[in-house]
Design brief:
alpha/beta, 9-stranded mixed β-sheet, 380 residues, 14 helices, Rossmann fold, Serine Threonine Protein Phosphatase 5, Tetratricopeptide repeat
Length: 380
């Protein structure tokens, strides 16, 4: 059954519902889907990446937030900001979030973590995978009273999500979650996953939070990558806004190579091999080496090794012909080599691709093309 779709209009930055031109700013939409778990239709919010419509060949990780209407605009803004600059430092993702209406239904059922996870596994994930270009890499996030859900997902459905972000989770004594967490850590030695835990030092949950950190220090499986952080200077309202960017940057830190790292110093083939291993061993889909190889080329340019830079940029263009940035990089190197004739069409392609994809760099690439065209004309 095709769900009824509603545009979900919210103001970016929570400042205004309309732009200066009077056009609504649409950051997502609300979908109604059939739910076997709730035995009635349920609603979810979804935000597609900025490049989704233009890059029809591209598939995206899925970020699932067990939140509500109030969480959605802030989470959407955070994810957009962290990924809009050529997916640095975080890749673009499909954002899925509960509506307040759906969250209230779970509250009325007693806020059981298993209900949330079952709803996601049975109803939401199959719908997203069927109707959107998703990758098999899923991030489960929640906070405070729903913050037990990512932990429950890790313990009871360790292969359903690849990353779990629990922000100030209210792990109570009567939930039994600490004991389940200990059993899981001691028994699941082959679990491949990422876990982020953060706390604002809330007195009511501090004891159980500290117990979980102690258990992780003693018994965490080798392939469970985990991080913890405390933000005691933040209120319960601001703590998720501070914690989430840190969690995401930590999760995707291995996608960003330092310019002086051993992998980069070994050259382009070393970089490709590194990203291939990440693809196979962590993400489960092909993660791009484009940015790292491009940075290597720029490093050659800064060292005045222009011919090496051109060689690196040409190879990057062959590997990623749909990216406007590889054309701009090669055009820059050819210009540095005093070959404006060869650089100009590449710069034009960079601008045309950026425009077609509605890339944030489109105006800059247009300016660079106009400037290069003028320079070439003056040199004739």
């Amino acid at each position: 059954m095709k769900p009824h779709q509603l545009f979900f209009i919210l103001a970016l930055g929570l400042l205004s519902f309309f732009s200066l031109a009077g056009e609504p700013i649409v950051i997502g939409e609300t979908l109604t889907i059939d739910s076997k778990v709730l035995t009635k239709p349920a609603s979810i919010h979804i935000r597609l990446p900025s490049s989704y419509q233009a890059l029809t060949h591209k598939r995206y990780p899925v970020y699932i937030d067990v939140g509500s209407d109030d969480d959605f605009p802030a989470t959407a803004g955070t994810l957009h900001w962290l990924s809009h600059n050529q997916e640095y430092p975080v890749p673009e993702v499909i954002l899925v979030s509960l509506t307040t209406e759906t969250a209230v239904r779970f509250i009325q059922r007693g806020v059981k973590s298993e209900d949330f996870v079952n709803f996601l596994e049975v109803d939401v994930i199959p719908y997203i995978d069927k109707n959107y270009r998703s990758q098999p890499f899923r991030i489960l996030t929640s906070s405070e009273r729903f913050g037990q859900v990512p932990l429950y997902g890790l313990i009871h459905k360790p292969e359903l999500f690849q990353a779990h972000i629990a922000i100030s989770p209210w792990v109570t004594d009567d939930s039994g979650l600490v004991g389940e967490f200990e059993t899981f850590l001691k028994s699941q030695k082959k679990t491949f996953a990422f876990l982020w835990l953060s706390s604002g030092g809330e007195p009511r949950v501090a004891s159980n939070y500290d117990k979980m950190i102690s258990l992780l220090q003693q018994h965490a499986p080798k392939n469970l990558e985990w991080k913890s952080a405390q933000f005691k200077n933040n209120t319960s309202m601001s703590q998720p806004l501070v914690s989430l960017p840190n969690a995401l940057e930590s999760l995707f830190a291995d996608l960003v190579l330092a310019p002086d790292s051993n992998v980069v110093n070994a050259g382009a083939e070393s970089i490709r091999s590194y990203y291939q291993q990440l693809s196979e061993n962590k993400y489960g889909y092909s993660v791009s080496a484009e940015n790292a190889i491009r940075d290597l080329g720029y490093a050659m340019l800064s060292k005045k090794e222009v011919k090496k830079a051109i060689e690196i940029f040409r190879a990057n263009l062959r590997d990623y012909p749909n990216s406007p940035h590889v054309y701009y990089a090669l055009a820059s190197a050819l210009k540095a080599d005093n070959d404006l004739q060869a650089a100009l069409p590449l710069q034009k392609t960079a601008y045309e691709l950026a425009s077609k994809q509605n890339n944030p760099y489109k105006d800059f690439y247009r300016q660079m093309y106009t400037k290069m065209e003028t320079e070439l004309s003056n040199n004739r």
